[in-house]
Inverse folding.
């Protein structure tokens, strides 16, 4: 990623690590939104968002750039970074890389006209990110389960990238692993992997058998009936985007530990997550210039 000036705007620890990785490779890097903890973006020139964007020809925004379309996600910023027309003007000359690009391009007509690339849609990013998400989920399970994963009974709801990454990790601990899915081809893959497939219509009947349930489905699949049938010592880890796939109110009323574990790569493996973003953006830039 040579011969460019980068701006890293907002985000969590992985964006700070991204700024440090780029700077360590000899690039000029401006970072904005890290004044609470500037050391996580060591090597970067710290500035406000408008200055950083204006100085750079490549701007990298967070995986989840905004939750409300009004301000940039910036966990370590003491002040809100508004996604206003002033910032948009500073971004016009740059190539902007972001996750969930529609959250940026949908802000206004002017934002829709920016030169935006979405690294979160790239398959190489999704597969690698799923792997470290699965590893972090395993860490959470060890931390919160009252017993060992060894010989425990685990259920994964959903067999997308994260489900596929998580199942072998759980099996490697000696756990028994079942996977809930909908598509016939997924059931075939589940069986080929030596796992037990479960239809969603059978979930409630399975609930009392589970010591750990990990949801990866973007739908309410762990409803009140399922939760009321669970072992009280069981743990739910929900990895789906808000609002998740768990009835958290039902879990609370039943005394079930239910964690809505969002942004795990940025929390548990920020440097690796940053490297994945950097490698993906590098590939995108090389493709544009080939």
């Amino acid at each position: 990623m040579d011969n460019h000036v980068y701006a890293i705007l907002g985000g969590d620890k992985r964006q700070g690590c991204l700024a440090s990785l780029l700077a360590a490779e000899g690039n000029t890097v401006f970072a904005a939104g890290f004044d609470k903890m500037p050391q996580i973006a060591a090597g970067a020139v710290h500035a406000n968002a408008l200055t950083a964007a204006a100085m750079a020809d490549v701007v990298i925004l967070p995986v989840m750039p905004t939750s409300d379309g009004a301000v940039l996600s910036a966990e370590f910023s003491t002040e809100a970074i508004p996604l206003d027309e002033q910032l948009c003007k500073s971004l016009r000359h740059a190539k902007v890389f972001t996750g969930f690009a529609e959250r940026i391009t949908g802000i206004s007509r002017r934002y829709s006209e920016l030169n935006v690339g979405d690294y979160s849609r790239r398959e190489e990013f999704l597969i690698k990110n799923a792997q470290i998400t699965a590893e972090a989920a395993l860490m959470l399970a060890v931390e919160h389960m009252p017993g060992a994963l060894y010989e425990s009974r685990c259920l994964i709801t959903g067999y997308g990238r994260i489900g596929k990454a998580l199942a072998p990790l759980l099996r490697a601990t000696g756990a028994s692993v079942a996977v809930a899915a909908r598509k016939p081809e997924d059931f075939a893959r589940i069986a080929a992997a030596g796992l037990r497939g479960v239809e969603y219509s059978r979930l409630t009947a399975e609930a009392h058998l589970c010591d750990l349930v990990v949801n990866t489905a973007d739908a309410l699949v762990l409803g009140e009936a399922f939760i009321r049938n669970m072992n009280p010592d069981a743990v739910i880890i929900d990895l789906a985007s808000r609002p998740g796939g768990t009835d958290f109110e039902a879990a609370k009323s039943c005394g079930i530990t239910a964690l809505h574990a969002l942004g795990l790569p940025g929390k548990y493996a920020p440097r690796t997550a940053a490297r994945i973003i950097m490698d993906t953006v590098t590939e995108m830039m090389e493709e544009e210039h080939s």
Q: What stands out?
A: The two ends are 14 Å apart (CA to CA). The first helix runs from residue 13 to 24.
